[in-house]
Amino acid sequence: MKNAKKYIIGASALLIILVGCGVAVGRALNNDDESMYDDTPKSMEEILTEIRSHMQTYNVAGYIIPSVDAHNSEYISLHDQRFHYVTNFTGSAGTAIITLDKALLWTDARYHLQAENQLDPAYWTLMKEGLYGVLTRDQWLLANLPSGAQIGTDPFLITSSEFERMGAALLAGGQRLVTLERNLVDIVWNNQPTQTNEDLIRLDIKFSGKRASVKITELRKLLNTNSAAAIVVNGLDEVAWLLNLRGTDILYTPVFFAYLIVTQSEIVLFTNQDRINETIQEHFQEEGISVTVRDYDAILSGIQTQAADGGKLIIATSCSQAILSQIPADQRIQVYSLVAKMKAVKNDVEAVGMREAHLRDGTAVVRYLHWLEENVDSGNITELSGAAKLREFRSMQEHFVDLSFTSISSFGSNGAIVHYTPTEETDKLITRDSIYLIDSGGQYYDGTTDITRSVHMGEPTAFQKEAYTRVLQGFLSLGSAVFPPLTSGAFLDAMARRPLWDAGLDYSHGTGHGIGSFLGVHEYPPYLVYTTSAADNQGLQVNMFVSNEPGYYEANDFGIRLEDIVQVVKANVSHDFAGRGALTLYSVTVAPLATNLMDLSLMSDHEVELVNSYHERVMKEVGSLLLEQNASDAYVWLGIKTQRIVKS
């Protein structure tokens, strides 16, 4: 193909699915039938009744609604929030299953309290994943639907690996997992927002550190290694990273809707063609790449065309069943995303940018915490207004673009909801009577940030101090760990949990996630969690960035979490694991810890010194920026908060 726009006539108007086979040949981006409905909001009863009516038309006894979009994104656009529309649950992970007489929602322990608050028990049953005795989705379907039942789903919204796993489990029990020609939620959703197609953002080489042409060359070497003719890139952040482009299609995540097919001679981008204006064409030239642009909805026909050449195609385990179904089985090479692994190791320019972005971000957080403590007694600072003030301080920092996610600004009992988001209905006044947890982050041209601090501006209880101290001990243990290269995150996860486990306490989320460079606030690999598979948990390497975030949550009372972003660096130790090398973690996050929440009697001299050493660096690095920003009051406050602590 030449470097020109290509059009596939009719590709966006047709979708054919062979029910039970999962074979798709096209997809409409928007709901073609929207004009047939008025836009009056529907009640939960109306939504479920209409979906069940369409289920009967398609002869399915159950319908699965995942929380993701066609790219398996964690955070999704308003257009793709089908899961939220049907359930009223705003958590970023879960699966809904609707049968002809029941509706159930599965979500993990991060969201159990939130789901209890948001689901209407008159219509929905909450299935708390991970708890003893709670049936999995497969088990529940097999136990509650008859043999021969068909369970339907949208082939674009279920990963191929999950479709295979779940399909095999149901088939063994006499049921069938099938794909449908229409998304039933889209049919029912009469006021569904349209999909966004905003202009793209060029990422300058001073921020990306590597031209797209170099990245594509490295990717093509991996094609050779795998004896493949092409690779299909389905992750939105992966497309953006490869091309050094960013977008605004998803709130807080600078990506745009697109797919990419890369061969040894071509780069084919599937996106809204109106985006590829003269500015973006110039960007491609500067990046040293020639790109053929086709319509977003032509991805399946594009895969078919590529597969017709007979070569092998690499696809990720995260790709949708719709994508996998276009490639003959003997031409598929399905692996954990090659691009995700490339992207996880930051180049030197990205690594420096991450450090600098976190320094400015830490300055904003310090200014906010100072402002909060000075003004909390006014009696008018709430979770929402506090979060808005923090955004204001971030917006003052160089290279700021936006937040990296909706701030988890949570006071008292709301802090026990791990991924709580304040709303007008839940907004609490922040006072000195309990713990305030603020988990937030920013998007900067030179990096993405994510930080959590838990503070008490009054007198904490003995148990709150014990819980905070044990979280802190795990945080320090992980942050100072020395380990050999490619160590699995599962080992490091255990380091962070040990002090809590010693007291019979724990937390229900992972200890660490990767983070993008002006991309997603969560990216994988790396993982620091003990439940991931070997394929997902590739081990740590120099210049990976990962969060260190243990916590503790006392239901209906308070929540504690400490989170730094840490960089994997070489360790200076006496030995190097018999020549393998030694690694450690360097915190790029710089903001004070809450010394008034520390029970020093529980802490070792080494732990006390780790806190003092970290606080000395925070005062030096953040203090200088505070003075540059004429924030002298915050500078004085920071000096007090970072004073050396001494065990009595």
Ranges where pLDDT stays below 50 over 5 or more residues in a row are 1-36
- How much helical structure, as a percent, in the residues? 25-40%
Radius of gyration equals 25 Å
Query: What does the overall shape look like?
Result: globular
Please indicate the percent range of residues in DSSP E strands (runs of 2 or more): 15-25%
Average pLDDT, rounded to a whole number, is: 92
Give, in spatial order, the strands making up the sheet with the most strands.
Answer: 1-13-12-11-9-14-15
Give the termini separation. 74 Å
- Largest sheet entry: 7 strands, mixed
What structural class results from the helix and strand content? alpha/beta
According to DSSP, the number of beta strands is 29
Provide a count of the helices.
19
Structure description:
The chain has 19 helices and 29 strands. With 648 residues, the protein is α/β, with parallel strands linked by helices. The strands form eight sheets. Strands 1-13-12-11-9-14-15 form a seven-stranded mixed sheet, with helices on both faces. The chain starts with a strand and ends in a 7-residue tail after the last helix. Mean pLDDT is 92; it is low at 1-36.
In short:
The chain is of the alpha/beta class.
Main attributes?
648 residues, seven-stranded mixed β-sheet, 19 helices, 18% strand, six-stranded mixed β-sheet, disordered N terminus, alpha/beta, 33% helix
